[in-house]
Specification:
The chain is mainly alpha-helical and about 475 residues long. It has 20 helices and two strands. It folds into two domains: about 375 residues, no CATH class; about 55 residues. A two-stranded antiparallel sheet has the order 1-2. The radius of gyration is 25 Å and the shape is globular. The termini are far apart. InterPro entries: MOT1/MOT2. It holds the Pfam family MFS_MOT1. It comes from Sporothrix epigloea.
Length: about 475
């Protein structure tokens, strides 16, 4: 097989993205905005308390969007490192501590990627555990949508304002439900483009108008706000606090989440959503095969924060939830994140910190529904658990081909389906209960290992029984012959 050089891959990716954008521009734009429900609240909260620089965050996250869109050809999200963001907000962490934590995580992930350890990890992790991580992460997003910082902090009419309350959230939710089948074309029904409604784009535009009105007419909001104005970005070098204990604590909490959800789970989801067999029926790609390897994703996460940390940019990574929701709202190529990245880059270069009031005024009711949609879409990835007998983890994700538990037509037995669901639910349940991806991951591995141990013990007992039943030694053999 001929080797594909980097510039050839970039050219193929660019052609694929351009062809996809020409085929369905509204879908790509809508998909690009799907993950704003995760990005905007965390970015605004961190910037308002001075834990990151808003202008640097927009510039570098926008640049990373463009680069990853061009290289991977996928709607790969660039989203906040959630564990670091949550800890920084709770502890009012300094900018130098926050960026140091992101850089430490990226250094570890990059080391795992270049040494091949990430690839080995992905090869040995059972598919039910990966699906459990996706399910748990999705349900975590659903729970966070109801938190006090989003939907849980709203009243029916006047809190925080008449432009942002439960009535707006209810309207957005009804719109989400009614547009479930108004998805862009897929392999099952290419004609669905005629029914497509860019839900995320509509919600974003409505939210933007509401934010502008709330900023212009402060009596409708909780505080006095100002509209953005022209302000050129002036980069400043910020030396991270490499040895600070708070930075290391945040990094340790984030590392399992980044490794499992932002690399391993993203790789598995990308393989499922963007397999060549799903692209070709749409006539969107004739020769392009997206890069979905964990090594490539790990190197991408590592490179992003090792660059942005010196300028006060928010720690970022990729995420299975962001990929799922951008796909749900129409994104099918790198064109979506290239457009988003270009917009963020321009905003950061020419508006920067003046956007803070507008971000603060964006309706939490609409952001909460976008986060809810993101969580539900990611959690639905678990539905395909028992549809791929050989799995996506190197063909050995549960030993099923060796223990004889697959039926002759290649499907799973009812017992094996039950066990795989149990492993997935064990992983997701422990992840949610302890709010820690590493705990869920280990619990899923233990559950999976217990089933495999039981298979080996059953096989050993069966072998012993067969030997005891050899001719001349059965209990029905005549005593006298």
């Amino acid at each position: 097989m001929a080797r594909t050089w980097p510039w050839q891959r970039v050219a193929q990716s660019a052609r694929h993205s351009l062809r996809t954008f020409r085929h369905s521009p509204l879908a790509e734009i809508s998909g690009a905005l799907g993950d704003l429900g995760t990005l905007l609240p965390l970015m605004a909260a961190l910037a308002l308390q001075g834990s990151v620089s808003l202008s640097s965050t927009l510039v570098f996250s926008g640049l990373f969007n463009v680069v990853t869109g061009i290289w991977f050809g996928l709607p790969l999200p660039v989203q906040p490192m959630k564990a670091i963001a949550a800890a920084a907000i709770a502890e009012n962490a300094s900018l130098r501590d926050t960026v140091a934590a992101g850089a430490l995580v990226s250094s570890a992930v990059l080391l795992l990627a270049v040494t091949g350890l990430l690839r080995r990890l992905a090869d040995i992790v059972p598919l039910p555990v990966v699906k459990g991580i996706q399910l748990g992460a999705g349900l975590s997003l659903v729970i966070s949508a109801g938190s006090s910082s989003l939907l849980g902090g709203l009243s029916w009419i006047h809190h925080p304002s008449v432009l942002d309350n439960r009535l707006w959230a209810l309207a957005a939710f009804v719109g989400l439900v009614l547009t479930q089948r108004m998805a862009p074309a897929d392999t099952a029904s290419p004609a669905r483009t005629a029914l497509f409604l860019p839900y995320a784009l509509v919600v974003f535009l409505v939210g933007l108008v509401v934010a502008i009105v709330a900023s212009t007419l402060p009596h409708l909001g909780a505080v006095d706000r100002h509209l953005p104005h022209f302000a050129v970005w002036h980069p400043h070098i910020r030396l991270p606090h490499w040895l600070d204990s708070h930075a290391w604590a945040m990094a340790i909490a984030q590392l399992p989440l980044t490794t499992l959800n932002s690399v391993v789970a993203v790789s598995a989801l990308a393989e499922e959503l963007f397999a060549p067999s799903l692209l070709s029926p749409l006539a969107l790609s004739s020769s392009f095969t997206p890069t979905t390897s964990v090594t490539a994703f790990g190197c991408s996460v590592g490179a992003m924060n090792l660059v942005g940390c010196w300028f006060g940019a928010m720690p970022v990574c990729h995420g299975a939830g962001g990929l799922a929701v951008q796909y749900r709202f129409g994104a099918r190529s790198g064109a979506s994140v290239i457009l988003l990245g270009t917009a963020k880059l321009l905003l950061g270069l020419f508006l920067g910190e003046t956007l803070l009031d507008l971000l603060r005024a964006f309706p939490r009711s609409l952001l909460g529904v976008l986060v809810l949609a993101s969580g539900l879409e990611l959690a639905s990835a678990g539905a395909s658990l028992n549809t791929h007998p050989q799995g996506g983890q190197g063909g050995q994700e549960d030993g099923s081909s060796r223990d004889g538990s697959i039926t002759q037509d290649g499907s799973f037995t009812s017992r094996q389906k039950r066990e795989r669901w149990t492993v997935m639910l064990m992983t997701a349940g422990c992840l949610l209960a302890f709010k820690n991806d590493a705990v869920g991951f280990l619990a899923g591995l233990v559950c999976h290992g217990a089933y495999r141990l039981a298979d080996k013990l059953e096989a050993r007992n069966s072998s012993l029984r067969n030997r005891l039943r050899r001719p001349g030694h059965g209990e029905h053999t005549a005593l006298l012959s």
